[in-house]
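ok trying again, last paste got cut off:
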Amino acid sequence: MDARRICAIAPVIPVLVVEDVSRAKPLAEALVSGGLSVLEVTLRSDAALDAIHEMSQVAGAVVGAGTLLDPEDVAPVIQAGAQFGVSPGSTDELLDACEGQSLPMLPGVSSVSEIMRLRSRGYNMLKFFPAEAAGGIPMLKSVAGPMPQISFCPTGGILAETAKNYLALPNVKCVGGSWITPTDLVQNARWSEIQALATAAASLA
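nice, full thing came through this time. structure:
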């Protein structure tokens, strides 16, 4: 499954920082039950690889690894069960590593030159990051004219109240966000409340 198909599955990709691996599986189950089956587990904690492994066992979950920065990150996340990768930006070395191991990639961009560089390399589904700080909706509207074939998953600063405005853009397939999994709900295992937030996010499609 390529990145474009993955991004078309659900309107919101939860961006997850999992600190406690015991929370990983029930968290994934709550999100998938709520209608958000594509999950990004960021490599921002020591538990990240184990969390990817646990979440990838959940029926219906499509689990990816976020915050890929170096070529050396690629093999471990694939071994853990990641089905796609996400990066805040991109380097040729990182893209080479992902392509070499057939890991679908959602590379981050924040400028027109970066979009054009990735377009020339064959990428047409990109992460727009940090979305709000990099120009938000006006930026995405501006690049739609000259490059209508490029689609985006805006991530960074997007909230439940603003997500629908991004999703209304023709060049936005989905958005990434962390509002679906507040830290206190995860820490206190309030899975039904997280499921309800996921259901609300899924309804934005």
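cool. The longest helix spans residues 191-202. The mean pLDDT is 98.
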